[in-house]
Amino acid sequence: MIAHGIRTVGVLGAGQMGLGIALVSALRAKVPVLLHDKSSDQVANGLAFADKLLAKDVSKGRISSEEAKEARDRISPVSDLSGFRDTDMVIEAVSENLALKQAIFSSFAKELSPSAILASNTSSISITKIAAATIPKGVSAASEEGKATAARVVGLHFFNPVPVMKLVELIPAIQTSQDTLDRARAFAVAAGKEVTVSKDVPGFVANALLMPFINEAITALENGIATRDDIDKTLKLGMNHPMGPLQLADFIGLDTCLAIQQTLYNGTSDSKYRPSILLERMVDAGWYGKKSGKGFYEY
Ligand code: CAA
Predict the structure, then answer these.
(1) ipTM beyond 0.90?
(2) Among 152, 157, 254, 267, whose Cα sits 20 to 30 Å from the Cα of 207?
(3) pLDDT digits (tens, 9 = 90+) for 19-59
(4) CATH code 1.10.1040.10 region(s) in the chain
(5) Is the omega angle on the peptide bond into residue 136 within 30 degrees of 0, that is, cis?
């Protein structure tokens, strides 16, 4: 098997995804993790949650208290992006916003070593567009320098809750090198995940299939076809889904679902991806699902 060669990983974003990625990197891949978020409260809350998850794993006899302590000790917060300078791979897990991700990857390319892998946990945004943003102004994308810079970028899409979900989608940009892909895959496997590969299309495989399903459930509610509880119960008991689609939308975050659906719709112009008005209105109202205390359910 190909060695990932990652001695230290940087994780940008300590929200539900970033924290989970930091935890599996420290616990399963056993590499030191540098964690950064612009909000230090988010980092503190994330680390407190990691402590709880590790304590639960110890209490269930899955890991020893030494392993839990070692994993926790591998995670260190850093106060800015320059803290990632000596990492061999960085994984970005910030909100779904192309301009934000492009600015971040441009900084990564300046700060990190030319051999470092620059991975995005985006759930739908084009990895090719993110990779293009790493090329410095004045450098041609077709030059050797331009190609080598963008070749380090890859999509590494984890699923929520990261410690529980077994999958990572691996998404090559059209510029990604085989070496980047092989090492990113080896890292995901070391972190305990199974890997599937998707082309760089809007939503990749997972969200191109999941989001129309969630949107249909919201439209069914909007059209009064069934109650919230009956829509979710139908899918849970009729199809053995662990959560109904409305509960799952709350769990993912309605703002995230809307952002993904907008990327799908804008990227394909296909009406099957048009977000429902109800989803838009709920996000307008600040009802983001579980994380904000209200979505289709109250928390
Ligand atoms: N973080 C870490 N672990 C968590 C967790 C969280 N946020 N939430 C639950 N868990 C753990 C629990 O601690 C529990 O662990 P143990 O087995 O060690 O006790 C385990 O998950 C099961 O939890 P529960 O028994 O409390 O509840 P459950 O049986 O209903 O399972 C669930 C919870 C795993 C979340 C399950 O409901 C499920 O699989 N739901 C679907 C999740 C899903 O589809 N995720 C993908 C979303 S799409 C995505 O992430 C990608 C994207 O781009 C949008």
Answers:
(1) yes
(2) 152
(3) 999 999 999 999 999 999 999 999 999 999 999 999 999 99
(4) 206-290
(5) no
Cα 159 to averaged position of ligand 1 atoms, centre (Å): 10
In the three-class reduction of DSSP (H, G, I as helix; E, B as strand; rest coil), residue 237 is classed as helix
Q: Which regions in the chain score pLDDT beneath 50?
A: none
Q: How far apart are CA 299 and CA 296, in angstroms?
A: 10
Q: What is the 236 CA–ligand 1 centroid distance (Å)?
A: 14
Residues with CB under 6 A from ligand 1: 53, 56, 60, 123, 159-161, 163-165, 206-207, 242-243, 248, 252
Pocket test for ligand 1, best of 28, 96, 123, 164 (most atoms within 8 A of CB): 164
**186 CA from centroid of ligand 1 (Å):** 24
Known catalytic residues?
A: 123, 157, 169, 207
Sign of CA dihedral 20, 171, 3, 80: negative
CATH no., domain 206-290: 1.10.1040.10
What type of residue is 130? Answer: I
Contact 278, 222 (CB under 8 A): yes
pTM: 0.96
What residue's CA is closest to ligand 1, atom 36?
242
165 Cα–ligand 1 center, Å: 7
Q: Where are the alpha helices (DSSP H) in the chain?
A: 16-27, 40-59, 65-74, 98-111, 127-132, 144-150, 178-190, 204-222, 228-239, 245-252, 254-268, 277-284
Instruction: State the span(s) of the chain assigned CATH 3.40.50.720.
Output: 9-197
Q: Which two tokens stand for residue 124?
A: 């739908």
User: Do the beta carbons of residue 77 and residue 111 sit within 8 Å?
Assistant: no
Q: Which CATH class is domain 9-197?
A: alpha beta
Nearest CA to ligand 1 atom 39: 242
Q: Which helix (H) or strand (E) holds 15?
A: none
Sequence-distant (≥ 6) Cβ neighbours of residue 255 within 8 angstroms: 95, 283, 288, 289
